[in-house]
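Q: Is it fine to ask for two folds in a single conversation?
A: Yes, each is treated on its own. Send the first.
Q: Here.
A: Result:
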Amino acid sequence: MEVSPSLLAANFANLTPDIEMINSSESDYLHLDVMDGVFVPNISFGFPVLGSVSKICRKPLDVHLMIVEPDKWISQVRDLGAEIMNVHYEACTHLHSVVSRIHQAGMKAGVTLNPATPVSLLSDIIEDVDLVLLMSVNPGFGGQKFIPNTLKKTKELLNLIKSSNSKAKIEIDGGVNETTGAALKEAGADILVAGSYVFGAQNPHERISLLKNL
């Protein structure tokens, strides 16, 4: 299992120790949730903060744009050195074009689905994406309870990927812990995003290791 801890749950008064913890951990990525207060009911952080984080983080950056018109920011995300750029299906009128431009910028393209957005809507794009992120909570705030229907959606997504010969990975974001993580692994998930579960723990390294070795 791959693990992508979410910076949203870190200590924003002093991010350096938390990023150094990520650097020394078994995590595979650092997940960065960019929120604009329009697409989701919250504002997180912008590119000045991301630029500072990118200078000290040695893990690949998994950038998740919870914003309107995410295609306007492809070059800025690329300039961070991001490995993955995640955009919401619900925010992209011309999704195929956005995915193509992300690839042209040298990044892996991820498409995110909100809890009420069906997996079937990806049937015409699934072969072109590198990753699908399923929100297992309503986007906008950390620390929410896992939505059980995500397990069904994960299985549906896995079937879609297999039937289309897509190489897309499945990432899950929201309410992840060792219990939901184990169920998600069984359902077919490849990457787990965890915020409060990791950064709220007395031993974050141990929590990351638990998810990594599910």
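Q: Second one now.
A: Result:
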Amino acid sequence: MTESPGLLGLDQAELDSCVACALCLPHCPTYRVTGADTHSPRGRIALMQVVDEGIAPLTDEIVEAFDSCIQCRACETACPGDVPFGHLLEATKEFVETTRGKAPWWLKLGLRGLTRPTLLRIGSSCLAVAQRLRLVPSRRLGLPQRLPVRRRALRATGDDVWLFTGCVMDAWQRDIHLATQEVIEATGTTVRPSGDATPCCGALHTHAGLGDEARRLATRVMSALNGDNAILVNSAGCGAALKDYGRLLDSDEARAFSARVFDIHEWLADRIDEIDAIPTEPAIAERVAVVDPCHLRHVQGSHMAVRKVLEPFVSEIVELDDEGMCCGAGGAYSLVQRQLALDVRDRKTEVINRSRADLVVSANPGCSMHLAATGLTVRHPIELIAEALRAR
């Protein structure tokens, strides 16, 4: 006899798989900052259980414990029991949003804007002009130091692979897309940028508990990127979301789609030897610290590929001594949980400064902007590779 779902509708076996062993605690950034068990994975799961079973009501304090999670999913890497904490929290946040509408109105409005490419570009250009006039506190808001007023066009060169361009990254960091296309083509592969046909992957909507909107966007992306050619992604958060469409939509079509998705470094690692212009000596004479985006390290498990593709081009790769601790960006987290995000970032910047690296690389736009707001120089790994290839 199948056990009926509880109030939150969570999988009981997944909930029960957590034995509260506490091995996740040292890897949880919010627990490291606050020391509160309700800010830890096992504490949040315990709250899910008592609410799901009707033992405790869904109070504002419990909702805040869920909202305070960055959703870095480092706990999943540390967990010996493979507890799917990320999916449990996403389902819980969707229940909270459906029943209580807790996401701030301005966040919902902003997420809606991400799905309208023309509006996003116009708004970003206006913001860039305001930035030039020093009307915008860029560092405090975590914006790039110099937003583009205009953007160079992305043009298709063939249909070997798709390049997923997304929303904010395309509006604010299109140069990274151009560099990515340049590196892909150096392997002899043609590229078709996805463009406005895929305005947003839905990752931020999922994190905010807006599940219906996330599923709608997933369906739209799948329809646009048809065929069987690979889909390459240079944003760790977007790549993790696209790879999770199979679970999000629970269909064979979605699972087949997700199997076509690769992080750009993951894809390039198998083809790096096909690039004719690889320098015999490193073209970038700097010590480069790699900051692993959580959704590349803990969700996709592709972070070592970044090191493999960077190694021929830089003089030294510096490993940070914090086992990939989160930087605190978490998509929109740095906006809705400002102080916690800053506290977590402070710990990360201490580690980076201790490494004495000349340069920092991160393969996620949110992480790079969040860290750059401290004054650090942060680049995308693919940018360095493209620059090295141009130097040849």
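Q: Anything structural to flag on that second result?
A: Two points. The chain is about 50% helix and 10% strand. The first helix runs from residue 12 to 16.
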